[in-house]
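Question (not urgent): is this output format expected?
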Amino acid sequence: MDTSAHLDDEYTQDGSVDIHGKPSVKNKSGNWKACPFILGNECCERLAYYGINTNMVNYLRKRFNQGNSTAANNVTNWSGTCYITPLIGAFIADSYWGRYKTIAVFSIVYFFGMTLLTISASVPKLKPHCNDSDPNCHATTGQIGVFFLSLYIIAIGTGGIKPCVSSFGADQFDETDEVEEKKKSSFFNWFYLSINIGALVASSVLVWIQENVGWEWGFGIPTVTMGIAVCSFFSGTVLYRHQKPGGSPLTRIAQVVVASFRKWSIHVPRDKSLLYEVQDKESVIEGSRKLEHTDGFLFLDKAAVETGNDKSTIGSNNPWRLCTVTQVEELKAVIRILPIWASGIIFATVYSQMSTLFVEQGDTMDAHIGPTFKIPAASLSIFDTLSVIFWVPVYDRLIVPLVRKYTGHQRGFTQLQRMGIGLVISILSMVVAAIVEIKRLDMVKEHNYYERTTVPMSIFWQVPQYFLIGAAEIFTFIGQLEFFYDQAPDAMRSLMSAVSLTTVALGNYLSTLLVTIVTQITTRHGKKGWIPDNLNYGHIDYFFWLLAILSSLNFLVYLFIARWYTYKRPTGVFHVSK
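Got this back:
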């Protein structure tokens, strides 16, 4: 009997281990049996996040008496921070703790922040009392301090979780197994669906509760939900597969850069097989496979040229003078990914409008359903969520099999094609939003509605712009998730997932910058500007057209970048310490 073949069938071959550090048994761990706990965690955590984010602009306007521009900027600044802090969580996960421990610790931090936020909206001396009948009211310094402290504790908590959960879920599928590898692609679709189920409840039930019952309940329920997210994650502990942290990826990158500059005068041999690489099948990097040499960025290859000065005083290779081909290719992979990453920033700026200008636009429209029921403007983001929920199974079950027949690609579209389609759809969403605002302003002008709080134009005119952004998400955001996981070096997957999330952060910050610049320029000489507190005197349609133009230019640049991109080429087996 072939014992090695038997072990190959029994254990995973991707280097994963169980909670005790032993090799993962295939039929007892990972795969879809572990995923419900991860998806449940993500669904509840996203419900908590969107329970805050979706209607935050109205909380700041109504309870803190902030103007439209200030409130919108505070929301995008906080949202941006929530997508920058993943760099911290990812670095800790890849370098020291691993994904499981990082998720566990930061989930508790997240829950603490949610609890403090609920207290800030519940305790009489901490919650602001401003309302529409007292426009001169302002929150106290203590109230502002506790509120924003809780928000940014939440930002730290979500930063530890976000880059790890999707990668941890993908870790449950052995990519050396052809059957499990196919399932992993579907996992990203269903992972994104779970996000939007949480967002669906947040944008409908929670927003209604915040507007009609009270903010203490509107924040308290997401806090309880975050507690459920923590419990869901820990419940699957015995089933999870874990990838061991591979050490600091930033150190490895720095070593390649330093070694390259130290050898700036050395010529790279024509025969690339002469470059330094360990002879074992395994890479020297924990949790990583070897990578084949690729052309491009040849200066970095100097780090893998072996000379007589490369050994340290104890006889082993000095990593600050000599790096393996795999280590060099790690850095090349990161450099190639960065232009793709940058192309997502404008898309994220478009996406951020759903929690800011779309809500403020909706607040000026007729939100009644029937004679008595009124839908909150922030709840209209439910149509973005419904769009995602509709398109995920349609894409996974109908579009992919159909496109596969013509392209021959296992996933239907390549990841780069998928992202590009989403960029085009996002342009259409801004065009539609601008047209809706033009129609609204025409009604204001025709009937002299300038001093009215709302105009008799149904808020459901906004549905197409939300629906289009939902469709764009299915292509671009899910494509990004899958692309950054697949193309990231094996031992840098959390970090690269975090890098992908920073597009959302920078998109929010860019939105803040654009609003600030537009406001400063358009309010000169006493003008009311594009985004005044009374939007009936403004022109947010111009702002939407600006985003449509920027998105179109971004797409043209993306086409060039996508044609230039070279996919990574892994080889060998995963390195796991014995």
